[in-house]
Amino acid sequence: MKPSAPHAPYPRLVGDIGGTNARFGWIASAPAPGEEPLISDVHTLPTADHAQLADAARAYLARIGRGQPGSMAFGIANPITGDEVRMTNHHWSFSLSGLQTELGLQRLVVINDFTALALALPSLKAHDIRQLGGGMARAQAPIALLGAGTGLGVSGLIHSAAGWTALAGEGGHVTLAATDDREAAVLEQMRRAFGHVSAERALSGSGLVNLYNAVCHLHAAAAQPLSPADVTQRALDGSDAACVEAVEHFCAFLGNVAGNLALTLGSLGGVYLGGGIVPRLGAFFDRSKFRQRFESKGRFESYLAAIPVFVIDASVSPALAGAARALGED
């Protein structure tokens, strides 16, 4: 992949900033020609432990005992539309120019976290992904990306003579649709709570809780004060029928949204699922209605049946590599 911009000095600090965790890595020096940058000293810091992003970055540097980086790039779970950034799913807010000055950086690049993840997709290794249905990915065809974590990220890759271009958008906030009466009833409960029910209202950590609460209401049962991890664990061990149904709805809704995205982008190069929730679901997700709903698009069922879906399950956040690509090469 051709990097987007040159002349970022080393050493470089790269980050993947979500609503719950901030992941940082260190690039000490330029890679050899044709090689990927070596990202070392990868650490995850809870965002709640730090007042602002600059504080988290300084805490990371203190932890690894490194000096001043020349450049920094990070993907953040937020649209980047100007100098001021206010996170959607966390309280951090900052000025990009102010952050660059505060951290003493010669160059700062900030992109959406799923744009960063999209930039890393072509370099993912076989052990970082597992395929869930479909056939072979078509070379240089558009690629779709979405993933549920603290929020729902959406991006994609389009290939041209200049290489791959990552899309920046907010597709997680499209309106969520029902495909049967039960889903319609679940969404009606959520509409009463939120008005507009975006895909993220169901396909995220808080979305799991929203689905659980809606299912409990439909069963005329009292909802317990569960966390997203509680809902997931009780579904996986089968100890709570409402949690099982909630996670089943999660998988089905995700399949519907992923299929819509694949049709929109014409993503014959494959659909990639990022975020932290799907990998944790494991075999439950594989047995779910995800693939059925992904393909169930009427006259285009056979078109979607050929598209491979890949679950990203990497030990180190690939978005760090995407942020490194955004900095470019000297």
From TrEMBL:
Cross-referenced Pfam families: Glucokinase
Membrane spanning residue stretches: 261-282
Amino-acid positions noted as binding ATP in the UniProt annotation, renumbered to this chain: 15-20
Major place of residence: cytoplasm
Subcellular location: Cytoplasm
Entry superkingdom: Bacteria
SUPFAM superfamilies: Actin-like ATPase domain (SSF53067)
Keywords annotated in UniProt: ATP-binding, Cytoplasm, Glycolysis, Kinase, Membrane, Nucleotide-binding, Transferase, Transmembrane, Transmembrane helix
Gene3D superfamilies: 3.30.420.40, 3.40.367.20
EC number: 2.7.1.2
Family statement: Belongs to the bacterial glucokinase family.
Listed name of the protein: Glucokinase
Species: Sphaerotilus mobilis
